[in-house]
Task: structure prediction
Amino acid sequence: MKFAVVVFPGSNCDHDAYHAAKHVFGQECEFVWHKDTSLGGADVVILPGGFSYGDYLRTGAIARFSPIMTAVREFAEAGKPVIGICNGFQILMECGLLPGAMLRNRDVQFHCEHVNIRVEQTDTPFTRRAATGQVLRVPIAHGEGNFYAAPEVIAALEDQRRVIFRYVTPHGEVVDAANPNGSVHNIAGICNEGRNVVGLMPHPERAVELVTGSADGRVMFESVIQNGF
Amino acid sequence: MAFDTATLQRHGITPDEYARIVELVGRDPNLLELGLFSVMWSEHCSYKSSRVHLKTLPTEGARVVQGPGENAGAVDIGDGLAAVFKIESHNHPSFIEPYQGAATGVGGIIRDIFTMGARPIALLDSLRFGPVEQAANQRIVRGVVAGIGGYGNSIGIPTIGGEVMFDEAYSGNPLVNVFCLGLARHDAIVKGQASGIGNPVYYVGAKTGRDGIHGATMASAEFDDKSAEKRPAVQVGDPFMEKLLLEACLEVMKTDACVGVQDMGAAGLTCATSETGSRGGVGVEIDVQHVPQRETGMTPYEIMLSESQERMLLIVKKGREAEVEAIFEKWDLHAVRIGEVTADSMLRIRDHGTLVAEVPNRALTDEGPVYRRPFHPPADLAERQRMPQVDAAALPTASDALLRLLASPGIASKRWIYRQFDYMVRTNTIVMAGLGAAVVRVKGTSRALAMSLDGNGRYCQLDPRQGARLAVAESARNVACAGAQPIGATNCLNFGNPERPEIMWQFAEAVAGIGEACRALDTPITGGNVSLYNETEGRAILPTPVIGVVGVVEDAAGVRTRVFPEAGLDIVLLGENLGELGGSEYLKTILGAIAGQPPVLDLARERALQQFLVAETIVGAVRSAHDCSDGGFAVALVECCCDGGGIGADVVVPQAASDGGINREVATLFGESATRVIISVHPDATEGLLARAEAAGVAAARIGRTGGSQIRITINGQTPIDCRVAEAEARWATGFSQWMETQG
Result:
């Protein structure tokens, strides 16, 4: 498989995504500069975390205008797998590929820590190898990860089984104490209607080697590599 | 004289210094030139009070690739790679404006590292605040922590560790010392030197504004009740701009189109132009009209003295300009040619072609005043070193004292702080924040680097030489506990007003102590920073030398943390307890006193212990390691159980060798003798380890087992400590955060 990691000015998890795809999973991987207009024949696109454009104005708000986003939209509309991680998720929401918006964490502090998320659906390219209800221990690192959408949008997401990950206890219970940022319905990640575009706040690319604290994020890479479109 | 006394005073220039300027320039300087000397000869930039002492530090060693004098030091870590690191203070700005003061401190040290051609991979912070129980100090803590996170998180360099202590003496003078480490190939290290007559001088980065004018001079004066009025002298940080600069500069430095790079930190453009010129033995000529400006109507004086952040100076090879400009354009940055390298060693500044300043570079950078300031010990030293009278009947029980110590903000978990820092970005962090020395792996090799910042103002207040020796030893010991061989050090020396002989004595003694310990432990000082005048209304901080030691682990898989990994392991105590309570956390927290003499330190024993630890970690005998420091053995043992999923410990320890001036039980549990480490060992490996310890001359004793849910310490048949891990851990987990979470 060939991965493309899109680099915006201010992206800072680009190297982590690249390292995971290229060195940990041995896949082809290329950085794609945001001013480029082609994804270079990639099979999977990663919009990495970071602070694109310094998060000035609003997280992800400026990056959506980058030239590469036209190609990303076409790629997504063709049903190919796109994943937005953290700031990448925010960019996907800003450009309309995913619904909702991020508020500041409810305690208005940046949070960096390992959290537990539960896999809600396995019919996306990034969760196929996971089991429904499987709990993954993965890091978060964000100040604005408090997922919000209007009640009818939330209802639609739930009805259409588009909530892919929820913050839970290590035993998989959805409780407020397991919610690090105040997200509605403990939502940590969602997908689009076509189920090929996934956004999540936690960082699976930081959890692919045990030496860095957890390898639970591997299943997401394995899913897309072994079941890629 | 061309200036009145008030003008000279405003520039922090004494009459004698003025006379020297006239001699060096050969005439009376104009106001701009006076301004150049003012910032370059400030304490902050010139080290005029500290230089004679700093010269005595050991700076050489087999692994030293770059010693002091450049933007950062560098040591060899094998495979042609070097660890490039340095620590710097941003104390004064952080008191005036905590968020921006701390943020720009982070930005400044990161620039020092990538200026050397190194990719920054880790940040650590050493912080000192007034008591966190007070709302005014909580506000400063909040601002500083948010500022460090705001900058480090955004630029994408993990903040992986550090240390925090609290004392009334820091209420008006918080300390913010920031350490950064980067990686570079030896042959790719870039220096801050100008060379090549006719080579163009480029300016790149943020535009120059009026912020930070005379910042270096501010950092060289005491505070008074008017300090808030100095707020315009604090710069404002833009981590996004710096991220672009970092990536673009590293990309430029991969080509060989650039001969020298220097960031604009303290003293801004003045420092960058004169230092690159004088290091290269050449002149630099610029025209300020080409300097990008954020505000209109800026004078050459303001442009030269501005400390606006995120600006770099590059000396580019003639003929390669387009290549360099194109790389910066890619990152939406505009590199602007502002001048060129000349042959005559002068710094020449023009404004629209008109010559407005002309002074020898070396006069600014190397020929400033050097002071041998008088020093003597404080009159009350003997009194300070006397242990207080203690009413034995009024002491709390051992168990009570332990819980109080665990909840004291200096000892308690700092999770509330480090949770706000992205300590994982770049996926190199293999020891998470809060678990011991910070450790990052070096991708592409089997190695890892461990680093630790340490300093103890209480010890230094009582005996600065001994306190400084202990700081070096502790920092190196922490690195050794992770399993790393200490290979180099940096220091940040925070003191009061050096014009007071008793402060200057603290400084001289501390530097002497650092030198002794660094020589003995073979950790040369490769650079650092001095912050003086940390006083508010005549009251100085505790003398606070902070030491950063870097160590290398050959096999990253062998790295250890402080936490007992499982039940059923033997607990082995390395080192001996002399029962020393002078300057201890017990004395401060339980009895409210900073008194007595700090622990003794036998450097030969310290070195033997550290070498033993590293060797035993390499052979896999050590499962966890944690040194005994603040709060002594009992606190260290609890810390081994915290974050470990509730695994307890049951130990029998020998009585301390003395009663420490209080009583034998307190001395045994809470004495702070140096050179002690608690390790856990698989029972099958214990005998061999103890035998090797004996052969190495390291005191070692098996004292108990991990397991159960209690922490039990037995001394002489009595068990003064017998508490649930959960209870101890809860105290430790909330002792600091309770103060930060209760307020809005």
Observations:
- The two ends of chain B are 55 Å apart (CA to CA).
- The mean pLDDT of chain B is 95.
- The first helix of chain B runs from residue 5 to 10.
